[in-house]
Amino acid sequence: xxxxxxxxxxxxxxxxxxxxxxxxxxxxxxxxxxxxxxxxxxxxxxxxxxxxxxxxxxxxxxxxxxxxxxxxxxxxxxxxxxxxxxxxxxxxxxxxxxxxxxxxxxxxxxxxxxxxxxxxxxxxxxxxxxxxxxxxxxxxxxxxxxxxxxxxxxxxxxxxxxxxxxxxxxxxxxxxxxxxxxxxxxxxxxxxxxxxxxxxxxxxxxxxxxxxxxxxxxxxxxxxxxxxxxxxxxxxxxxxxxxxxxxxxxxxxxxxxxxxxxxxxxxxxxxxxxxxxxxxxxxxxxxxxxxxxxxxxxxxxxxxxxxxxxxxxxxxxxxxxxxxxxxxxxxxxxxxxxxxxxxxxxxxxxxxxxxxxxxxxxxxxxxxxxxxxxxxxxxxxxxxxxxxxxxxxxxxxxxxxxxxxxxxxxxxxxxxxxxxxxxxxxxxxxxxxxxxxxxxxxxxxxxxxxxxxxxxxxxxxxxxxxxxxxxxxxxxxxxxxxxxxxxxxxxxxxxxxxxxxxxxxxxxxxxxxxxxxxxxxxxxxxxxxxxxxxxxxxxxxxxxxxxxxxxxxxxxxxxxxxxxxxxxxxxxxxxxxxxxxxxxxxxxxxxxxxxxxxxxxxxxxxxxxxxxxxxxxxxxxxxxxxxxxxxxxxxxxxxxxxxxxxxxxxxxxxxxx
Length: 657
Description:
Elements: E1 3-10, E2 16-23, E3 31-34, H1 41-54, E4 59-63, H2 80-83, H3 95-112, H4 117-126, E5 127-134, E6 140-142, H5 154-160, H6 162-180, H7 187-203, H8 209-221, E7 227-228, E8 231-232, H9 233-236, H10 239-250, H11 268-271, E9 281-287, H12 294-315, E10 326-330, H13 353-362, E11 368-374, H14 382-385, E12 390-393, H15 399-411, H16 419-422, E13 430-434, E14 440-445, H17 457-466, H18 482-487, H19 491-520, H20 525-535, H21 537-557, H22 571-577, E15 606-608, E16 614-617, E17 620-623, E18 632-638, E19 641-646, E20 649-650, E21 655-656
Parallel strand pairs: 3-11, 3-12, 4-9, 4-10, 5-6, 5-9, 10-11
Antiparallel strand pairs: 1-2, 1-14, 7-8, 12-13, 13-14, 15-18, 16-17, 18-19, 19-20, 19-21
């Protein structure tokens, strides 16, 4: 189905009734959500993102406050240990009770909307949430280029659509100059940098990353052209101003400013999970909660939007029109209002507005849908937002806000006479929804499959270090965040982690190529075998160990035939060679015999974890974790304590014997 369950229709008495299902295809033509503080607009946006992810549509989200990052909190079970790490209380002795209450409340909210823990687990199994943090180690550190790569069709764009190309180059130059020269006269510098970027893009000079900035500094000091317009370089911008500009740009490579360009490369392929090995749909959250300066936030939004623009042009026009390729969600385009709005109305502008305009005006042709939301509707450029075909309006508390939204809806060719009354009356979570076809619905949003909260810096660290690992130990003790500090990696370890991420990307690319081979030759067992190994290397290793054990047992039980030199081919070579021999016992190519760890017998003195996460040892039952169900656990008796080893890892949970 291509429909999204985001709420229920409200009957004339204001009671939720039939399910409201939103068309997935409507997201391509952009969505605008507005409502005052406490209206539920953030929950509405997250519900749309959740539903789209379950339909296989990835999202890139800019999180300004930390409340969107909690999309990562999809618990395997709604129990106090799972919820406790994400509950903040003043008195730590009350944590256990608070976590249990939160788990029960979460469960009841799901039930109220016809949902259950199974739906949460489905989301967890199908969706992966990655949290990226520019200029910080709180999440996956990502570098933000001062100048993005050009679209692959930039020369063609200059010839066929010069207005769009000029807007891209000029806004990129303005963003850079505003960053390095925060105040004062900078018009000539902007024109000069615009000409430099256009020259570099047309001639294939790479200005991204630290090396790219170095190249730009060289071009500023020794321009690759003699004139700007009809004026000579020195007439347009004297050498002393060029020298100061070069020093300002060079300053971005020194000290704290250089932190912007350190970290994983910000590639949209990585952010959409194009090379994921596990096949999950990816939601990438770019968390800016630790960055408080509006200009810095606006700069990041601009660079992300520019990168999406280049990526979508590389892919070309979207095939068909019923499914978005990507959703881009910015929850607070109103910012702090006035000069500090991300999408302000005239006469104000922002670093990121030109980049957002490109996505809003052209994204639909490439299958990129924008979801833009605000609680400050009085400070938004509604003429630009008339490109949004879906409007979702919650409670607006002031007459100014209601008048501005009504003005915006008029631009969108919709103006019911009683709109002012209707948008003043809703309760929290209630919205008026105008869809692409012009139909108006009054709905109440459903609750989320993920735990809705604002993640603190300590909780972001915990998620990076331990993921959704349940609270371990007694809930009557403090949560020790100190051990998370110890997990923060050194520079060398961070480099290793980046290399692992690159390796995973490469494996994902290999899987994509193998799938293309299967598209041409569906009978290729070799391609299927390689995919199974690459997508589950740990499972392959377990199957290999089991196969080796079976070979050993068979060799001990059966004498070698005469003439044999006593050497058997290795299990790995046998498995990959696709050869079968009648005197080798069980065929190692028959993957049905060892398809999963759950079907294989555990090695040595061990048992399999039951479906409820429990294990039996010497007539007693011990409760572990459901996530280990079906896996082999080995027991360790040490100083009167029983410990457990799973996949070579000794669990911190132990019991007295």
